[in-house]
Amino acid sequence: MTTPSLQPLSPDTTLSQVLQSYPGAQRALFARYHIGGCRSCAFSPSETLAQLCVRNDNLDVQEVITHIQDSHQGDATLQISPTEFAALRSATPDLKVLDVRTREEHEAVTIPGSLLMTQELVQEAFSHWDKNAPVVLYDHTGSRSLDAVAYFVGHGFTQATCLTGGIDAYSQEVDKTLPRYKIEIEA
Questions:
Q1: Which of 40, 50, 60, 79 is 20 to 30 A from 124 via CA?
Q2: Helix, strand, coil abundance in the chain, percent, nearest 5
Q3: Beta-bridge partners for 162
Q4: Domains contained in the chain, number
Q5: What pTM did the predictor assign?
Q6: CA 109 – CA 158 distance, rounded (Å)
Q7: Range of the domain at 34
Q8: Can you give the residue ranges of the Rhodanese domain (predicted)?
Q9: Residue 5: pLDDT above 80?
Q10: Dihedral through CA 164, CA 167, CA 170, CA 172, nearest 10?
Q11: How far apart are CA 131 and CA 125, in angstroms?
């Protein structure tokens, strides 16, 4: 699987396009500008960056673009490729691997040895795990796990990373025996 090239951002780029190329953009927008994190500050996928900036106190669109790009570079430091993950698993037999997907997804297909991330497991990790040991989090495609790994890093886990492309990329690049799937949203 090849990583898609980053789409250049402009004032006319839609939020849907932004999120496709920069999965952590919603978290970045919320953290700095309180945009997109809740119902009162939500945005439409078809809204452009220029429209978003006008609607939010005439923010400087170039500043917002720079912030999204800088945040994306920071997100890259929190990620591990499927092949790097496979090598780390081989070298670290007691590696903690957390699945941040739903219970149903976890029960359907999982990376062997991973644990479903529940609130109880998070509390155990924060209270008892070595915060300097590597821990890898994954989801379906790699976007939700970015938020989860940022949460772990914020709580002192110095070697927390998330799997780039999620279990989907892992199943294509490392373990082709894992079935791939798509999530269908009911209308």
A1: 79
A2: 45, 10, 45
A3: 79, 137
A4: 2
A5: 0.74
A6: 28
A7: 15-75
A8: 91-179
A9: no
A10: -120
A11: 8
